[in-house]
Amino acid sequence: MRKITVAASVVLLCGTVAQAQFSSDYRKAADSYFAKGDYASAVEYYEKSLYGKSKTADGFDPYAYTAVKPQPLPKDSQQLIYQLAESWRLLKNYEKAAPLYKKVAENDVRFPLAQYHYATCERALGKYEEAENALHRFLNTYQQKDHYSQAAQREVRNLVFIQEQLRKETKGYAVHTLYEGKTGASYAPVQLSSNTLLFTATWADSAAEKNKAHVNHLYEASFTEEGVGAVSRANIPVSQLHEGAAAISADGSTLYLTRWSVSNHQKSAAIYVSKKTGGVAGDAWSSPVALDSVINVRGANTQQPFVMPDGRHLLYASDRAGGLGGFDLWMAELDAAGKPLSTVNMGDNINTTGNEQAPYYHASSATLVFATDGRTGMGGYDLFYTKGAPGSWAEPQNFGYPVNSVKNDMYFTSYSTGKRILEKVVLSSDRADVCCMELFQLQKANPMKLVVGQVVACDTRIPLAGVAVEVIDTVTHEKIYTGVTSADGSYAFAVKQSLPLSSMAALKGYYTTAAALQLPADADADSLVSVPVCMQKEPEVINEVQVLNNVYYEFNKAEILEKSFASLDDVVAFLNKHPDIHVEIGGHTDNKGSDELNQKLSEARAANVVAYLVGKGIDKNRLTAKGYGATVPVAPNTYDDGTDNPAGREKNRRTEMKVLK
Predict the structure, then answer these.
(1) Among 377, 385, 384, which Cα is nearest to 406's?
(2) Is 40 in a helix, a strand, or coil?
(3) Which of 28, 110, 375, 635 might form a disulfide with 648, Cβ 3.0–4.6 angstroms?
(4) Is 528:646 a contact under the CB 8 Å cutoff?
(5) Residue 452's CB: how many other CB atoms inside 10 A?
(6) CB-based contacts of 5: which residues, under 8 Å, 6+ apart?
(7) pTM for the complete prediction?
(8) Is 619 in a helix, a strand, or coil?
(9) What's the rounded Cα separation, in Å, for the pair 430 and 435?
(10) What 3-state DSSP class applies to 327?
(11) Strands of 227-233's sheet, edge to edge?
(12) Contact 125, 380 (CB under 8 A)
């Protein structure tokens, strides 16, 4: 029996030694794969090191499994579990990563970041209460003031924002994936033409070499109201580099794209330029050439170009020196041939200490869109937008849900030709997948928009009731609205979208007035309130004198300024409406200068107004010009103490119309 026992002990000892040796080998392999960024292989070998075999391939759940014959965990198993959790997180499989992080956080203080990563995984899984609790535990125990402490504080704010967004009304939005059943990522959409989509994908290539089946390449597809079809590889000369995240010039002749490689575990990305070799969309592109050192800096990653509509500015993301942290957005000036001349950081109004990437500009709404993980959002990267122009961008705003999700949302292009940027959008997100970013189409319905206008009297600003109003689309000249103002001078009508509109207002006793409707710039607002239109009152009785407002002359001269023409055209309309009326145009000055000079100036100004009216077709026999100089003031030119009265002088410098018969 002793002999057998000894033999058995030797066998058990050998098995234990062999198992330890295998575990050590598996760990070395796992660490090597992890360092290379091959997290899928790292998962397999970390599991082998922990459990003796990979549990992933056969559907094994490493954190829910109870072995029939438990194996002793290898030495420093907490480190292995943490690395396994890291691998799952970097594969974006938060469901598998979260319990592993939780186990480490509860059992080993050597890994303080386990609590933080556990919180972000729970947030991505929609478990907001547990995520918030984990973040507070992390902030209470983590002593360093660094990127992670700042990120944790931002994540607390994110959780508040997320829950606010998920409670809001999202009626009118439609979101769906563009491709089903494809293995690999699809992202970075670009509008190649009105019905063509260019994008990047890592779809499996059966003809590729081993371990190179999922290389990033550019693809083209038709994109119409019926959906996406006719997908093919972009006709760019073959390269061993990854390629994607592209941009197209406004004239469609120049393609900017990102190319990158991975060497010694380091990514190296640069922006290249290619020219179309034919004249229509879909033709071949020339072999891409790297932009010079103005853009591509040695030792830095430069990627995700976007060429502005003017063709003279290139936006891009880079982690080059001189930024605020991580990737920043930069803008380069291009010459007429597309060669970079200079580049500048887009500043702290856009960039943060986090990462800003994937710039896009929507010309018809003058909106800059980009992705960032450095601002309060829904988690990971969120899409933000800002209005303005280079050097004067407004404070960026989060698009909110459902444009953004609790996962990563990056890359954006709008097919909208109007100001409603969300009318038809393609964006990239990993919201529906445990692995990769996918292309999504998002549409926001275009509901009828209420436009509210008002008509008031020019002199008193009192609302005018009973005004007959017509509203015209100035592009199509279609009549949009006909109606009468209510007691408060208002009227309202509905249109499908913001249009350039003009109104015609008519009321007895007032000049008929035509004016553009001045609407606010918010294209997504459900209602728009126009700036009130004012109407000048017509003279009603003989010898009644009316001041012609808004008639201006060159200083100390008689020449009429162009900004007076609209007011004088109202006089023309009045005289045409009343062909039997004869009027006097009277010129008046203040008392500065000699009486003789003021008399001549007032006569010349009155004569010039009469000449303008005659030039517009009014019979000269109906018009009389008379100058009064400074003899008929309507206000004191000086105060009682003799000091100058500017307001009074301004009232005295006037042009009047008096009905004679």
Answers:
(1) 377
(2) helix
(3) 635
(4) no
(5) 13
(6) none
(7) 0.65
(8) coil
(9) 7
(10) coil
(11) 186-193, 196-201, 217-224, 227-233
(12) no
Q: Which of 529, 518, 625, 533 is nearest to 570 (CA)?
A: 533
> Is-contact 312 332, C-beta < 8 A?
no
**pLDDT tens digits for range 505-543:** 999 889 888 888 887 766 566 678 888 999 998 766 566
- Residue 518 region by backbone torsions, left for phi larger than 0, else alpha for psi between -120 and 50, else beta: beta
Q: Which residues, other chains included, contact 59 with Cβ-Cβ below 8 Å and sequence gap of 6+?
A: none
For the chain, give the number of residues.
661
SS3 of residue 598 by DSSP: helix
Question: Which residues have a Cβ under 8 Å from the Cβ of 180 and sit 6 or more positions away?
Answer: none
Count Cβ neighbours within 10 Å for each residue of 256-286 and write b for 16 or more, e otherwise.
bbbbbeeeeeeebbbbbbbebeeeeeeeebe
C-alpha to C-alpha distance for 426 and 413, rounded to whole angstroms: 5
Tokens coding 310: 């003017």
Q: Show contacts of 640-647: CB within 8 Å, 24+ apart.
A: none
Query: Which uninterrupted H or E stretch holds 137?
Result: helix 128-141
Tokens representing 498? 């913001």
Amino acid at 378: M
The C-alpha R_g of the chain, in whole angstroms, comes to 37
Tokens representing 161?
């924002």
Q: Taking the CB of residue 324, how many other CB atoms lie within 10 A of it?
A: 17
The residue type of 659 is V
Summarize pLDDT for 134-166 with one digit per residue, the tens. 999 999 999 898 889 999 999 999 999 999 999
> Which residue type is seen at 649?
R
Q: What is the DSSP string of 207-244?
A: TSPTT-TT--EEEEEEEETTEEEEEEE------SSEEE
Share of residues in the chain with pLDDT > 70 (%): 88
The sign of the torsion formed by the CA atoms of 212, 216, 221, 226 equals positive
Give the distance, in angstroms, between the CA of residue 589 and the centroid of all CA atoms in the same chain.
54
* Spatial separation of the C-alpha atoms in residues 509 and 222, rounded to whole Å: 60
567: left (phi over 0), alpha (psi -120 to 50) or beta: alpha
Secondary structure letter of residue 374 according to DSSP? S
Query: Hey, CA dihedral for 458, 460, 462, 466, is it positive or negative?
Result: negative
Cβ atoms of 195 and 222 within 8 Å: the answer is yes
Mean pLDDT by 10 residues, the chain (661 residues): 38 44 77 87 90 57 35 71 93 92 92 94 92 94 90 92 88 85 87 90 72 80 85 89 93 93 84 82 82 95 96 96 94 93 95 96 94 92 92 92 93 89 93 83 84 92 94 87 94 81 90 84 71 84 76 86 89 87 89 90 91 93 91 88 87 87 78
Q: SS3 helix, strand, coil % of the chain, rounded to 5?
A: 25, 30, 45
Q: Which amino acid makes up residue 71?
A: Q
Helix 2-36 × helix 39-51 angle, to 10°: 160
CA angle 409, 412, 414 (to 5 degrees): 140
Q: Tell me the C-alpha distance between 591 and 633, whole Å.
A: 9
Q: Which amino acid is at 352?
A: T
Helix (H, G, I), strand (E, B) or coil at 258: strand
Question: 58: which 2 tokens?
Answer: 């056969």
Residue keyed to tokens 């660094």: 146
The Cα 328–Cα 350 span in angstroms is 8
